Amino acid sequence: MSEPRFKPCMQRQPMLLPPDVSDLIPGNSMVRIVDAIVDGMDRRTLESVYPGGGAPAYDPAMTLKVVLYAYASGVYSSRRIARAASENICFMWLTGMRPLSHSTVNRFRSERIRPVFEEVFSEVVSVLAEAGHITLDTCFLDGTKIEANANKYSFVRKKSTDRYQVALRERAHAHLRAVDE
């Protein structure tokens, strides 16, 4: 009988060059979708909430990407988001390998982005729905299932589209209230 053989595990092997973190992220990952959506947004909305002066702040687009990806991953606590920014490769890719503190995440959500967050969040959800990445027929909040009252054969008119946008903003507002709680 022969002895068992194992593949070598070289976890302490030094590297001559560091790996490119983006090579470790799959091409169809949700983090890449969030990154592309925020990069495609108008930055003026994000930058308008910063008064200027003082020490340099974290890039609001980067911080927004982190918060949106955290929400999409079901992570809402600022401490868990900060931990993920130093442990999870997707979060590390978004931050450019610069860890965030929980107070930075919390300050961004509560002070900086709060005045425009519902508008930004609704825009992101709308873009995701239009691209087919998510559907808006069912919404889950803390295990609560809320079903839509829609029919796949119904016609789409301007009035119903406007109502859809209002309903989307209301659902986003309700979701954000639940996150705050």
Radius of gyration, CA atoms, in whole angstroms: 20 Å
How many domains is the backbone divided into? 1
Number of helices: 8
Number of strands: 2
Low-confidence stretches: 140-146
Describe the structure.
This protein has one domain (23-50, 57-180). 53% of the residues lie in helices and 4% in strands. It has helices at residues 30-39, 43-47, 60-72, 78-87, 89-95, 102-112, 114-130, 158-180, and strands at residues 138-141, 144-147. A two-stranded antiparallel ribbon has the order 1-2. Strand 1 and strand 2 form a beta hairpin. Helix 4 (78-87) crosses helix 6 and helix 7 (114-130) crosses helix 8 (158-180). It is globular, with a radius of gyration of 20 Å.
Short description:
This protein is mostly helical.
Key features of this structure:
181 residues, mainly alpha, two-stranded antiparallel sheet, 2 strands, 4% strand
Detail the topology: elements first, then pairings:
Elements lengths: L29 H10 L3 H5 L12 H13 L5 H10 L1 H7 L6 H11 L1 H17 L7 E4 L2 E4 L10 H23 L1
Antiparallel strand pairs: 1-2
